């Protein structure tokens, strides 16, 4: 069928190149490799069904949006306890508006630079989910603020403050561990 | 816009500056404030060291082995013929291991083309792409079995396996222009399609395993019906499913 073939070609061009990023994002969200693979397979199927609607230049952020939503749906259905912290986040953020100012006692950059990969990963994994996904999308996957805002469905200002807080916490954790 | 309203605001701007998110005018403003405030300059340095650390330790990843094949199979794509498939290779090793262990009497069929098998795998893939994998969704065989009455000439054997393989429902597939019954079972997160094809005059045969488009298939013939179980579950689990189906009497 010609129509199907076009969809498959489109899928190959627009979605398949981003499988690595999709898998990494799903793994950071679920902290489980097998779950991440199942989520990517499920998300790919959803992306395939909607492949006619995606604009050329936006396919990566679009696919990662699907992956992220699939991952949270999966968590809600399979591990609701992991999500309870997310529900509290907005309250937490509104309470903490002014707490993440410049922490003038942050660790020395020389200590941070010596951090091992495992400590770095552990420090990122410890973050609240909303901070973690923002940091991963920016620092690991290289998305711009606008794309992150699209993927996570929050305003750019929220992306900026989550990113700054996530980074500050990770830096604090690894700076503390290096001493 | 340019006014720095608080420490937090100033810090966010430094992050945005390092991330290359500011236009030249705003970048200039941040550069001026970093020159004036050592705390902001230190923040910039920390962010840059952190970014270097992430780049060094968490580089972009390749998807795990086999994930691409799984995805391609899920959307009904065929793999390029000349490209060796690690997944297929891994699956064949797994099959060999099972056969060699002598745990079952499974036979490995040649993976040559077979119209019925292709039709059944296509039906399984289509069902995964549909909003529902079943036409009748019920875990109760007393609902599923009567549903087939009047829709197809045969009355399929419907068994409730419970436990590891709960019944999800049933549907009608059309394979080679023949409407046939397909039962859908679940195993963990995997769906198993079990299609019953009329096989009048065929001798009974033991379960035989093969693979098509990334899916595992177990086929056997029993009482003039050939059963085809298709799933992305592992070969061993699909074999366990077949054993369980064959061992369970229909009126349990």
**Rg for CA atoms of chain A:** 18 Å
Distance between the termini of chain A: 63 Å
Instruction: Round the Cα radius of gyration of chain B to an integer and report it.
Output: 28 Å
Q: Identify the most extensive interface between protein chains.
A: A-B, 50 and 42 residues
Give the uncertain stretches of chain A in residue-range form: 1-5, 95-102
Assign a percent range to the helix content of chain B.
40-55%
Strand order of the largest sheet of chain B: 1-6-7-8-5-4-3-2
Order of helices and strands of chain B: HHHHHEHEHEEEEEEH
Strand content of chain B: 15-25%
Describe what you observe in this structure.
The complex is a heterodimer of chains A (179) and B (252). Chain A has 179 residues and is mainly α. In chain A, helix 7 crosses helix 10 (156-178), helix 8 packs across helix 10 and helix 9 packs across helix 10 (156-178). Chain A is 73% helix and 0% strand. Residues 1-5 and 95-102 of chain A have low confidence and may be disordered. With 252 residues, chain B is α+β, with helices and mostly antiparallel strands. In chain B, 42% of the residues lie in helices and 22% in strands. An eight-stranded mixed sheet of chain B has the order 1-6-7-8-5-4-3-2, with helices on both faces. In chain B, strand 6 (205-212) and strand 7 form a beta hairpin. Chains A and B meet through helix 1, helix 2, helix 3, helix 6 and helix 7 of A and helix 1, helix 3 and helix 4 of B.
Gist of the model:
The complex is a heterodimer of chains A (179) and B (252). Chain A has 179 residues and is mostly helical.
Topology at a glance:
The complex is a heterodimer of chains A (179) and B (252).
Chain A: H1 2-14, H2 19-30, H3 33-49, H4 59-78, H5 84-95, H6 109-113, H7 117-125, H8 129-140, H9 145-152, H10 156-178
Chain B: H1 7-18, H2 24-36, H3 38-57, H4 67-74, H5 86-101, E1 107-108, H6 115-129, E2 136-137, H7 141-148, E3 167-175, E4 178-187, E5 190-198, E6 205-212, E7 215-222, E8 225-231, H8 235-247
Parallel strand pairs in B: 1-6
Antiparallel strand pairs in B: 2-3, 3-4, 4-5, 5-8, 6-7, 7-8
């Amino acid at each position: 069928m010609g129509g199907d073939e076009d969809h498959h070609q489109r899928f190959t061009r627009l979605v398949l190149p981003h499988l690595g990023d999709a898998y990494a994002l799903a793994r950071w969200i679920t902290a489980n490799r097998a779950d991440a693979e199942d989520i990517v397979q499920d998300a790919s199927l959803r992306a395939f069904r909607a492949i006619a609607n995606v604009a050329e230049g936006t396919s990566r952020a679009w696919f990662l949006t699907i992956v992220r939503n699939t991952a949270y749906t999966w968590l809600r259905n399979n591990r609701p306890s992991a999500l309870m912290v997310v529900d509290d986040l907005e309250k937490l953020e509104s309470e903490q508006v002014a707490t993440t100012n410049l922490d003038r006692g942050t660790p020395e950059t020389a200590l941070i630079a010596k951090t091992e990969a495992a400590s770095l990963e552990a420090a990122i994994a410890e973050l609240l989910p909303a901070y973690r996904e923002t940091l991963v999308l920016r620092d690991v996957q290289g998305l711009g603020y606008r794309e992150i805002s699209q993927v996570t469905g929050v305003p750019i200002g929220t992306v900026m403050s989550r990113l700054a807080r996530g980074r500050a916490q990770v830096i604090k954790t690894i700076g503390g561990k290096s001493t | 816009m340019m006014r720095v309203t608080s420490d937090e605001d100033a810090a966010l701007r430094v992050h945005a500056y390092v991330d290359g998110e500011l236009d030249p005018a705003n970048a200039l403003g941040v550069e001026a404030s970093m020159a004036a405030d050592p705390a902001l300059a230190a923040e910039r340095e920390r962010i840059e060291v952190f970014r270097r650390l992430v780049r060094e330790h968490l580089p972009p990843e390749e998807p795990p082995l086999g994930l691409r094949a799984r995805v391609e199979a899920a959307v009904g794509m065929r793999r390029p013929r000349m490209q060796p498939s690690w997944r297929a290779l891994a699956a064949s090793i797994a099959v060999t291991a099972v056969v060699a262990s002598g745990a079952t009497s499974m036979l490995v069929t040649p993976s040559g083309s077979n119209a019925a098998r292709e039709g059944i795998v296509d039906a399984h893939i289509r069902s995964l792409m549909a909003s529902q994998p079943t036409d009748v969704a019920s875990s109760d065989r007393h609902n599923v079995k009567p549903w087939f009455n009047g829709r197809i000439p045969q009355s399929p054997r419907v068994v409730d396996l419970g436990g590891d393989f709960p019944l999800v429902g049933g549907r009608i597939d059309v394979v080679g222009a023949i409407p046939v019954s397909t039962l859908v079972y679940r195993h963990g997160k995997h769906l198993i399609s079990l299609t019953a094809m009329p096989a009048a005059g065929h001798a009974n045969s033991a379960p035989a395993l093969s693979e098509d488009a990334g899916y595992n298939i177990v086929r056997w013939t029993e009482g003039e019906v050939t059963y085809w179980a298709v799933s992305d579950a592992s070969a061993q689990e699909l074999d366990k499913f077949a054993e369980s189906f064959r061992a369970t009497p229909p009126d349990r």
